[in-house]
Amino acid sequence: MRYVRKICPVCGNEFTVLEKMEEKAVYCTLRCFLESQNKMSEDEDSHSLSG
């Protein structure tokens, strides 16, 4: 098995994933994933209020 290192776009931590999962693994933890989802929904809400 081969591994690659990635950088989490939310917190900046480096993490290791299987090479096969490189495209699917974006966040280092579930917490970072949920933070990104919350931010996206807040952005959508602010756009719908201003439009």
Summarize this, please?
Helices cover 41% and strands 20% of the residues. The protein has 51 residues and is of the alpha+beta class.
General description of the model:
The protein is of the alpha+beta class. The protein has one domain (3-50). Helices cover 41% and strands 20% of the residues. It is built from one helix and two strands. It has one helix at residues 30-50, and strands spanning 3-7, 14-18. It has a two-stranded antiparallel sheet. β1 and β2 (14-18) form a beta hairpin. The mean pLDDT is 91.
Domain count:
1
| First-to-last CA distance | 49 Å
Characterize the overall form: elongated
The strand order across the widest sheet is: 1-2
How many beta-strand segments?
Answer: 2
**Low-confidence region ranges:** none
Sheet having the most strands = 2 strands, antiparallel
